[in-house]
Amino acid sequence: MENEKHTLTEAVAGIIDNTQEITHHTPSPDERRQYRRRAARWLAKITTRNKEVVHCRTRDVSERGASISSPYDFNLNAVIVLEIQVSYKETRKTLRVLGEVRHRAITKDSFILGILFRDASDGTTAFLQQYANKLI
Questions:
Q1: Residue 118, SS3?
Q2: Rounded Cα distance, 121 and 124, in Å
Q3: CA distance 48 to 54
Q4: Is the pLDDT of residue 14 over 90?
Q5: Domains with residue ranges and CATH for the chain
């Protein structure tokens, strides 16, 4: 019993040591958002380099990024293809961007991913800029 307890403690310690602690901190000027964000609860899907598809939902968007609620976690700096199904007023369109996971956090029922858009069409950027700034 003593050996089992010691082994369990080592196993738990190993897991804890390999996790990333998420703490609240005041962002530096370089980390602060440069673009206005706006809430948007649109269906989305992430496609990985391995062609795995994860269905998720946007929380908010800006012209250069999005906050995504995902059932799966991703590594920081992971490069993904993000497809967003926009449904706003009479507008129905699909936006497709190349993104990078820049932030991640865990909530009670999902993972929150901060995606930086690395490559988006001019039309996508223009639409998101207008939407985020409440011009449409």
A1: strand
A2: 5
A3: 8
A4: no
A5: 36-132 (2.40.10.220)
